């Protein structure tokens, strides 16, 4: 099976939204620099072009239908009446809490209490994108990384589906959606140690693929890298925005930022980017001290995915009112002490139908 470049064809709405927002959505106190204006590239070819930036299309005049800027959030389609949140709860010792009930949760949207209409705590099938750095510096690390990724898949629900993207200066899909561990192993084994690190482009292209092709509404990206992005057409801000526009997925980042390959400044920038990608989507960023820790991290990610609650509510704000809806979820239960809740930080309503801009050709033998 040969690698297929993963490419993106963005609809006008997605392009407009990406260009329209000003400022950087972040859960951190730090703010990345604003992107510089870019000229419009040529249109991608049908089969051979790598990932290209969506923020270079001409922007129409803003209208009342467009969402307003916010410090964080994701898009929820208006035709989806229920706001659904995947929620992880941990106690003050860092242990996952799995015995809560609907009445233990409180959801507030823009300061207004919301009434939960649905509650679920079950191991539901998940669609997973496994995105692995294939740059030259990862060559010796890949055997341990591949084992950890496969262990994570094997610890998952048998009805899960996953695909594999290997990226360097371009992103390639080396295994399309499958539940076969053997096929995923084959996709992960495609190691070429090519060039640079186009991490942001790989994340956006994979999020687009999940939005267009995934069978399951619950979606996750497992991102494994050992370096700072140095080859993407997108920047960090644009990457976060695009993932938010697609209503997900949750990103779990594993940064292998040890060794002498990177300067202290490069490590700081890489760590900050991975932390923001995970924080903004409700995931976790891990920074192990050695390859020996990666397998345990993969097991922890699998437990986190399997242990989440799903909360649903109808917003008290009409869906035709534009603007970011900030969500805060808290939990209290006797005998647990202080509980900490991790989930998305909010959403943007939109009147447009589901935006599925990515079309990735299937692998060819």
Short description:
It contains seven helices and 16 strands.
Account of the protein in words:
- The protein starts with a strand and ends in a 15-residue tail after the last strand.
- With 365 residues, it is of the alpha/beta class.
- The model is unreliable at 8-80 and 351-365 (pLDDT under 50).
- It has two domains: 75-121 and 308-350, Immunoglobulin-like (Sandwich), CATH 2.60.40; 127-306, Rossmann fold (3-Layer(aba) Sandwich).
- The strands form three sheets. Strands 1-9-8-7-10-11-12 form a seven-stranded mixed β-sheet, with helices on both faces. The protein has a five-stranded mixed β-sheet with strand order 2-16-14-4-5, with no helix packed on it.
- The chain has helices spanning 12-20, 142-154, 181-188, 199-213, 236-245, 264-281, 294-306; strands at residues 4-5, 75-77, 83-91, 105-109, 112-114, 116-120, 127-133, 161-167, 171-178, 219-225, 250-255, 285-286, 309-313, 325-331, 339-342, 346-350.
- α6 (264-281) links the parallel β11 (250-255) and β12.
- 24% of the residues lie in helices and 23% in strands.
- The radius of gyration is 20 Å and the shape is globular.
Provide the descriptors you would attach to this structure in a database record.
2 domains, 5-stranded mixed sheet, alpha/beta, 16 strands, 365 residues, single chain, 24% helix, Immunoglobulin-like, 7-stranded mixed sheet, Rossmann fold, 7 helices, disordered C terminus
